[in-house]
Amino acid sequence: MKNIAILGSTGSIGTQTLDVISRTEDFKVTALCAGSNAGLLEKQIRRFHPQVAVLYDKERARQLASAVSDLPVRVLSGMDGLVEAAGLPETDVVVTAVVGMIGIRPTMAAIKAGKDIALANKETLVTAGHLITRMAAEHGVRILPVDSEHSAIFQSLQGQHYRKIHKILLTASGGPFRGMKRKDLEKVTVKEALQNPNWDMGPKITVDSASMVNKGLEVIEARWLFDAAPEQIQIVVHPESVLHSAVEFEDHAVIGQMGPPDMRIPIQYALYYPQRYPLDVQPLDLFQTAQLHFEAPDLDTFRGPAFAYEALRAGGSMPTVLNAANEKAVALFLAGKIRFLEIYDIIAECMAAHTVIPDPDLQDILNTEEKTYHFIQNRWK
Ligand code: NDP
Ligand code: MG
Predict the structure, then answer these.
(1) Please, which residues bridge with residue 27 across strands?
(2) pTM (2 decimals)?
(3) Interhelix angle 38-48/12-22, nearest 10 degrees
(4) Residue 14, Cβ density class (10 Å: 0-12 exposed, 13-18 middle, ≥19 buried)
(5) 3 CA from centroid of ligand 2 (Å)
(6) Which residue, 19, 90, 207, 323, is most buried by CB atoms nearer than 10 A?
(7) Does ligand 1 come within 6 angstroms of the Cβ of 36?
(8) pLDDT digits (tens, 9 = 90+) for 101-152
């Protein structure tokens, strides 16, 4: 029996994690946390009986507390609540499935408390990868990737020697706008950006997939998870999303992981690691897929990866600027306030204006996030 806490239980990854958990008797839920969705969180509390539930929104947390006053659950709120829920003594694994940099402090709290991390919240590794990996080593905890590509790389490395990685082949679906040119992207709508061909995900990462900023963030995520140099990470566009990523070793043998595009597979792999267990999902049918395609990414049109390689080269606080600028830009795009291509303009301007802080600590990272938001507010009124 493993005790699991989920940060972001009401989202795409969170609900799929609970779906995996609900299929066996092998897990117990200790904590469930969300931003503001009190209705769904109440249903989850009644179904999974956590000791602690957190809503970041204080008013909604008060409403939730009175709605579940018949149950022995403690309802907390705000960042303090998330941090406390992440470090509960009973928990073995914390699933970090919140969206955005809000995940940094709870993830650090979980590591300090000695919890293994099933990591979906890539923004945390992108901005604080140097701190998170150092802390995980100090506290002897494992960072188990949930992101499908990184889970595939992780699975491909089992039984191998990490130092013998020659190259990581990081696959990308290409998103809904694959094949389009800059001119075509001028008028794309929010609705169009929210249509990923293969994956059903939360809105922020779906827009990130359309802009390929997601793939850029994943390059940085891979750099930290697998201690790979940026030039060892090659993005390969693979529209069928069947090969979830691969590793090329020094003898040029390539080992990859294939499967249906279903996030419950990497989620379950992280929860049970190092074991593999049965999972009832639609299996891959290669005769139906028939053909797999691989293409080089169009990095002039989809600028996300170029920003990531540039941020890695600059190092220090620059990946935080990329991530924070993107978080704010995507929020503005989803709110209908900017056009799709302006996401790139905002990121480019923020990165150009930033003076790198080398080896930033947590406070530097949070200050950099804040400054980036201010810069955008003043510049794009
Ligand atoms: P969703 O938008 O579907 O869900 C986000 C979750 O975070 C919700 O539970 C939301 O709660 C919660 N949340 C938002 N703000 C706060 C806050 N301030 N405090 C506490 N909780 C908060 O996102 P996804 O599930 O798609 O993505 C989650 C993370 O996983 C992201 O980092 C994403 O990049 C990564 N990821 C996702 C994949 C996917 O298939 N979805 C694949 C690979 C990685 P509420 O519902 O109340 O707003
Ligand atoms: Mg991914």
Answers:
(1) 2
(2) 0.98
(3) 20
(4) buried
(5) 25
(6) 323
(7) yes
(8) 999 999 999 999 999 999 999 999 999 999 999 999 999 999 999 999 999 9
